[in-house]
Hints:
The protein has helices at about 10-20, 25, 30-65, 75-80, 85-110, 115-125, 130-145, 150-170, 175-180, 195-205, 225-250, 255-260, 265-270, 270-305, 310-315, 330-345, 350-375, 390-405, 405-425, 435-455, 480-490, 510-525, 540-550, 575-580, 580-585, 615-630, 650-665, 685-690, 705-710; strands at about 470-475, 495-505, 530-540, 560-565, 590-595, 605-610, 640-645, 675-680, 700, 725-730. With about 725 residues, the protein is of the alpha/beta class.
Amino acid sequence: MEITKKFGTAPVFFTAISTILGAILFLRFGYAVGTVGFWGVIFIIILGHIVTIPTALALSEIATNKRVEGGGEYYIVSRSFGLNIGATIGMVLYLSQAVSVAFYVIAFTEAFSFFFDFIKNSYNIDLPRQVVSVPIMLLLSYLIITKGANLGVKALYVIVAILAISLLMFFIGTTDYAASTSFKFANAEFRNLDSFFIVFAIMFPAFTGMTAGVGLSGDLKNPGKSIPIGTISATLLGMVIYFLISYKLASSASPQDLANNQFVMSDIAVWGAFVIPLGLAASTISSALGSVMVAPRTLQALANDKSFPSLGINNWLGRNREKDGEPINASIITCVIAIFFVAVGDVNIVAQIISMFFLVTYGSINLISFLNHFGSSPSYRPSFKSKWMFSLIGFVASIWIMFQISALYTFMALGILVLLYIYIDNLHKNRKGLESIFANSIFQVNRHLQVYIQRQKNARAQKEWRPSAICISKNTFKYDLALRLLNWISYKFGFGTYLHFIKEFYSRETSEQANDELNKILRNVSAQNSVFIDTIVSPSNTSAIVQAIQLPGIAGMENNMLIFDYDKEEPDELDIIVDNYKVVNVGEFDICVFGVSRKPIYYKNGIHLWINTFDEMNANLMILISFIILGHPDWKKSNIKIHYICVENEVEKVKQWMNELINSGRMPIVSQNIEIVIREENVPVKDIINKYSAEAGLTILGYTPEEVKLRGREVFEGYDETGNVLFVNACSAKIID
Length: 737
């Protein structure tokens, strides 16, 4: 059955304004003015609206960018931060709304103080407040369950009219104090600064509620119009009324009367003994009505998103009444919760945590707006536009005010949210979405950083080297060692781009093939992957290499290292590497060739480096790469072992050279990790390396372009007894500080 959208802008406005002008206006405003003075209360109002006005603007902006369906604030948060975080905040938001109903009904009983005082004075009986609150809550529940939001909205019109009349009678009233004193702004006080945040904590709930009308979003004909107009106008009008009430109270009664007389407004208003209790009753019951209409719609939206563990519960809570589309079952649950807390009669502790949950919601809405502004997504085109700075201020103020009200309750609220999120995320592991709201912002940060780095790189006299490597491989589905090597290099100190090479002409078919294979790689890659992975389609090895070496680095710095890989058991790809060596050697690249072995990796046996005296430029790069690789968790129990081959009569000379390197700091390694290997006559160097490094986790060797030119693939062959071998050629000297 299609649900008729039945409401316009007025219900949004009246639901919000009736919640804003609630019990605190009549019961606690006089106390606030009497305690911290006129300017103290003005500052409290301004501080409170530093949260509420940006939230109203952010809500309005988001509502005009996308259609806000049932659930109001929950819908906005869940569609921005993902269903799991949305459900976490939505559940505590719903409980806050449901318990708020009880809070307002209990406050409603204060309008009957004259009745309780009469019974006490006449019969010496202390009647519990539940004598009034429970029947009122039962009546309210009956009306909402049987008649629905239609009756609630109609009742709101009458109740808000009563509220307006009572406030009018208050403003036209006068007192002897007002006649005998002349209130001047210059003489008004800001006192008891030590009590400021205590009073602020009492007053802050008075400014909340501007989002109450958003909960009707699923019943609005045009949410994009009604939410901005209704929410912003209610927020601003509420602020103006609070300013005027503060002035009226400060000019009409002494600080002592204001602080000590809960019903001081009755002494000021015309017919105050009647109209102020009536106004209190109207304000509290209207706030209760607003909450009892909104809360079931939040609960229903949560159920429709399958947020609860049982499918049966979700279906039952998500059900609408056929004749009018009311969330009947969600309304029943809301009323049961409210009746329970009304019967208990004390929601003071719960009320403080409720304030925290409302502030979390407001902060989330402001953060969503800020991230959308900062991310500059082309799809974010609201017809109503706020400013990013307002949203940022609203977010920061929400968090700051939470801690100012109560650090204990803030940590309790955040702890509940964390535990609830862990449970929901475990329940719905396939539901993500947190990345989407941050993706555009991360893109913008990355864009600005890359431009900044490009501007600054020429200004730096001496650049500190760090690897920014590209690996081109068509062996991705044969083995993962090349990708793992790139992860070792880029995990902590560098950056890596892995290009899966598809040797084909570029076409629609190969483009789809590239996307499919990329998705397959990303699905199977480790969660600890720190490499950017992509595909490259090209008809030849040379064209692929030329394309790759011209790619910009993902970190904003130019790529400076190129890695080729080949299978040591099927080394035919060495011909391709050798044939294209001239091409890559033209650029300023350190060129590494990785011989992949089928042997297991013995991490505990360490990394073996083989260096010589005429190869100091390669030696520094080899040492740097070794230290960088050791930073990866795979190598956490490993070490570096440097080997040097020489004939027997060169041993002392080599030791002296090694000590010079160590003492000068050019070789940051202890002498115990250096082994001088004496080469026997007629024993090939490769045989020595095969013998000493057969069980090494990784063997690193240096080579020169001249060797490749003269000997070709032979430079990289002959190391059959070793495991994985990384051949390194540095294009320039690397300074080791």
